[in-house]
Give the backbone structure.
Amino acid sequence: MEGQPVAKHSQPNLQQMDLVDRCNEIISAIFWDLNAACQMPLIVQGKPEGIDWQYYEIMKNSTQAFIDQTFMALVECESNPANASRHIQALDILSWKIYTICAHAEAFRRLFETETDEIWDKVLELVKAEERSVEVFACTRGLEWRGPLLTKASDREWPHLQEALAPEINTAVFHPHQVVQTQDGYLRLATFEGHVQANISESFHNAKNFPEGKYLRLRDADTYPLLREPKWGPCALCGSLERCNCQPVFLAGDLVELREYPGKGIGTRTLTNLQPDTWIGNFVGELFPTSHREGYWSFAGTFCPPGRTRRLQDYKANINPERFGNWTRFANHHCEENTHAGSFLAGGRANIAFKVDQKINAFDEVLINYGRGYWQGAGRKCLCGSKNCVSKR
């Protein structure tokens, strides 16, 4: 039963697993669970068909039960301080706010019952070190974390509880990928030329920017300039050679945060482990002909059949993410990148998406190679420090 003090925990099937890897798995699972806790209330608002209401109720009830056990442990600790449970130990490390946010994650609740003392200590240490990311993640996604505490707040004067429940600024009015954690611990909005950068889920274009016969076929200009050609290959989701209705969803992008990096500006940091060969995000923005706004950098959205490098001249466009885009536009450059951009064919569209090259651990930066051409611009010098740095050649 949750909440009972256990002196030692053991888990034989983890004997061969590295401690750091196991802790990374748990912290990754905590953020995945928190994301689900943030998304489920939004999903059920419209009462759509097919919703697993039992699962939704279990999510809510499990969190409340965990918090109830915490208050029971506090009462028991008053009469027997020497027998402090893990709930009490965790509250000595974490604030009420961070503790209650994490309580919405099944992986966090299981940590109290199933993991060894060594793993439990290490994960709590990680949560403490990353408490700002935990807080920003939950609050920018509108998690109603106070609910489980409100039933107990009026019972008596619990230490530090009222200050934890004090009103705060609502950051959920912005998309999480418009909010940047600064180096000094504050938050700011991502801007370009004085405007807050809008977050969009898919690229868009103005057909007037694509003259007939010059950049793409006119019949496609009325819909979308980068329609998927059946001859390029099958849909990555359903395998159909024809254009289909599949809509790619890159869930890993929900587990990415924006933060400032010294000397680099805004960068992208993953809150979960990312495995090799995983597609993690669709690079989106406003589409323009390749001749548009020369001198401004934008991702060259030149699509070609998988495995080929020959350009398809009638399907050439630039994706400009300066004003409109998503988290992928903030990925910083490194000459030894851990992610690359490639053609991703799905539904009726050809896309550029980010694919992981090597395992990226939670709290590491997502890095991509901008290409040699980017650094040929006037005054640009790469400072990545790699032995293969393009600016050293």
